[in-house]
Amino acid sequence: MSNPDRIEKQRIADDLREHVAEARNLAEKFGLSPYEVNYWVVDYDEMNELIAYGGFQHRYPHWRWGMQYDRQQKQGQYSGGKAFEIVNNDDPAHAFLQESNTLADQKAVITHVEAHSDFFANNDWFQLFAEGTPNAAAMLERHARAISEYMQDPEIERAEVEKWIDNVLTLEDNIDQHRPYQAVSSVVDDPEELDPEDLADRLGDLELSEEVRREVFDDEWLDALDGDEPPATFPEEPQKDVIAFLRTHGKQYDREAEKATDMEPWQRDVLDMMREEAYYFAPQKMTKIMNEGWASIWESRMMTDEGFAGDDEFLNYADHMSAVLGSPGLNPYSLGKELWGYVENTTNRREVLDKILRVKGITWRNLKDSVEFAAVRELLEPPAALDSIDADSLDAVAELPDEYLDCEALDRAMDGEIDVDSYPWKVLSYEGMCRRHYSLVRRPYRGFLERVSQSELERIGRYLFDDQVYDSVEEAIADVDYAAGWDRMREVRRSHNDVTFVDEFLSQEFIDENEYFTYEYSQATGQYRVASQDAEDVKKKLLLQFTNFGKPTVAVYDGNYNNRNELLLGHEYNGVMLDVRQAKQTLERVFELWGRPVNLLTVVKEVSDHDREVARRRNREPEPKEQGRLVRYDGEEFDEQDVPWEDVEHLAADDVDYDTKPEDWLA
Q1: Which of 241, 303, 328, 335 might form a disulfide with 176, Cβ 3.0–4.6 angstroms?
Q2: How confident is the model over 487-518, as pLDDT tens digits?
Q3: Is 223 helix (H, G, I), strand (E, B) or coil?
Q4: pTM (2 decimals)?
Q5: Three-state secondary structure along 421-472?
Q6: Closest by alpha carbon to 168, among 55, 276, 56, 280?
């Protein structure tokens, strides 16, 4: 880096110090509790390098990083895409700001990062790795240094190390991401592998008499060695952590000797490192919708609702934010932000209705006829002194209930020590912020309360035991907990991942309001068509895309398949068949990690030309035939065999009946 570049970056960093500090203060006022964040100012090329490296400055040498760097640069040059920031999950977290950003963009990035850091620090799925204190930068730098040393070792071919990494990376998502990360020895039993042929040869070399053999060795064991009783298969239960199983029981294939041999120490070490990194990055893949939505909704609250974007910056910010939320395809920022808003609104609505249903004379049956919702909204509006705070209104602010105020900050503001015109939120408590930003009175959601369905009213009101508490609606509204929505959001942030998040909150009401739908490829017409707007159908398609990171779920079913030391993998079929061509390419890689023949059991869908033509003439979809299929690779050639349904029935999921590919799912 040249000296002028260093000076310019330092100048930008100095200009941002106040904004960084105040963004952290504002995030905490909103109830967030992020990791500490170290911010770095980088140029365009450095940003692309960091994105290619997954947000870190040091990664192991590999061609994949160059490919990702090239893709990122071309995206910026030819498609107009721009990366404003990148932040990693670490304690402290590290965030990188592009020096060419406008001040509005830098502020947006900083507020976005603070919310990301809060999610990293408080979501349980991120705590599964190293108990929530990953020290990731040090771990990845350690891996980079170790692999570089292997590549520079004169006794190890660099190409062999790269090829070995390629083999492992094909399986990087085949871990058990729902369990805490543990070293391989804690995950897989590591019994000494006994090759019957090897042992028979060794016993033969000893030239022991049959009498001595029977005296020294157990009869049952010798009979099993002779093949009278095949040994039990292992593992006892299907193992999803395929990398751990291969690390423990796998071998390398020696092509000169034409047999499997033990892995070299460096090969097992690389497997361990790749597996550890896969577990580190897994929570980010599992919570993409939640995490980006969480960051987007709090960024929006800080930048617009609390005026963190200045008057001369607002339009620039709004333009860029709309571009992010309006990006085509399955947009995690948009879907996540909308779902988080729905969680907040439905919680607040339930809280309000719960109070109103306790008013004497009001029941879930007559509520809509008995209550004037416009009047309820007026009662929910924040006091004028809370809604608009500046240096001239501090006396009125002081008259607000104490629970809404940070009294110490208010005293300092009245003494002129706090710039209230720039930072009005500083004089408020968390409860005051909840009241000031109550969602049901915000312009986009002003009709949300009265849109409640009769079935929802029944669910809320049917089991209220103390339902005659208040004499009037006004008295009931005075008892509303304005923090309920934000408190519920933090509860959900703590425990959910994308699968559970979508499963719980993607309701028919949400689908209708946001106009989501499913589409499918028609075998009969050869075109895509809208298939359904039903919440269950939309949810199923989304859940399939999020389950196992949207990748096929494959587990180890047998490490001694057919008593021949072959590996049997099972594809957990969910209605979407494997791409057999890609599956074969993956088996070639797995063979290198197992050292012996590998097998894959799956289910395929087949439609004959005759059935397709008949369906087209009748304007309906053909019914595909589901067929069990076993694919075997022995290091030289593939063999495919159809197998009876009873051999694959345990792999098939229920109630999934569509065949669109993951990249074609819901936009």
Answers
A1: 241
A2: 999 999 999 999 999 999 999 999 999 999 98
A3: helix
A4: 0.88
A5: CCCHHHHECHHHHHHHCCHHHCHHHCCCCCCCCHHHHHHHHCCCCCCCCECC
A6: 276
